[in-house]
């Protein structure tokens, strides 16, 4: 029975991993299809996160440094990333600093919740609604940056000549390509029989 329990745990983890991968693949496809609507929804999430932080400071008396870092992250970096959404450059200072501040924010949250006694459901709600939803939206949008048609053009940009002069990049490391590979490797492909 002991060996069977470990085997069942392995099978359950494999199914959960596949379900998460399928969900991420579907979300990436939706983001490519509805980029403008996703941008609007992400902006509403950012505003909601701001309201949550303000409410936590006023009603729950969360520490000022924790709320300050959170609002700094939201206003300066998330709204900055929304300006070019879904086209997020991994090498931009805005993206790099926002990733660093997300790590700092997680550290401050872990430190605060280790010292204060809150029920697990409330801690999970804080992490979900404030720390994970918005970075997750930006993470999923990384796959859509090359498959979405440009909505606006910068002065001096020519979409057609820009496409042909840049050439193809070496290795594409987008999440959609990884999920397509996993899907092709795990799931059998259908072939038409004539």
Question: Would you summarize the structure shown here?
Answer:
Pfam families: Erv26. The protein is mostly helical and 194 residues long. It contains seven helices and no strands.
3D architecture notes:
It is a multi-pass membrane protein. Keywords: Membrane, Transmembrane, Transmembrane helix. Belongs to the SVP26 family. GO terms for molecular function: COPII receptor activity. The chain crosses the membrane at residues 6-28, 65-88, 95-113, 125-144. The protein is mainly α and 194 residues long. It has a domain at 33-146. 73% of the residues lie in helices and 0% in strands. The protein has helices at residues 2-33, 35-59, 64-82, 93-115, 120-141, 159-166, 175-186. Helix 1 (2-33) packs across helix 7 and helix 4 (93-115) runs antiparallel to helix 5 (120-141). The longest helix is centred in the N-terminal third of the chain and has 32 residues, at 2-33. The radius of gyration is 21 Å and the shape is flat. It starts with a helix and ends in an 8-residue tail after the last helix. The model is unreliable at 153-173 (pLDDT under 50).
Order of helices and strands: HHHHHHH
**What is the average per-residue confidence, as pLDDT, rounded to a whole number?**
75
What is the multimeric organization of the chains shown? single chain
Head-to-tail CA distance between termini: 48 Å
| Biggest sheet layout | none
Rg (CA only): 21 Å
Helix/strand/pairing class, anyone? mainly alpha
Strand portion, in percent? Answer: under 5%
Overall shape: it is: flat
Number of DSSP-assigned strands: 0
* Helix fraction bin: over 70%
What's the tally of helices? 7
Q: What are the low-pLDDT stretches, counting only 5+ consecutive residues below 50? A: 153-173
């Amino acid at each position: 029975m002991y060996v069977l329990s470990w085997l069942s745990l392995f099978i359950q983890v494999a199914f959960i991993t596949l379900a998460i991968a399928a969900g991420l693949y579907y979300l990436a496809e939706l983001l490519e299809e509805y980029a403008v609507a996703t941008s609007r929804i992400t902006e509403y999430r950012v505003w909601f996160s701001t309201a949550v932080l303000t409410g936590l400071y006023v009603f729950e008396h969360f520490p000022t440094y924790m709320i300050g870092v959170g609002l700094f992250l939201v206003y300066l970096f998330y709204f900055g990333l929304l300006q070019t959404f879904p086209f997020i450059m991994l090498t931009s200072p805005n993206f790099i600093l926002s990733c660093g501040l997300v790590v700092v924010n997680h550290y401050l949250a872990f430190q605060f919740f280790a010292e204060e006694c809150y029920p697990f459901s409330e801690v999970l709600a804080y992490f979900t609604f404030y720390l994970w939803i918005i970075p997750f939206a930006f993470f999923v949008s990384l796959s859509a940056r090359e498959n979405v048609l440009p909505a606006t053009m910068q002065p001096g940009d020519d979409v057609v000549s820009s496409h042909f002069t840049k050439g193809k990049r070496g290795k594409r490391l987008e999440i959609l390509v990884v999920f397509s590979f996993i899907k092709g490797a795990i799931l059998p492909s259908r072939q038409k029989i004539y």
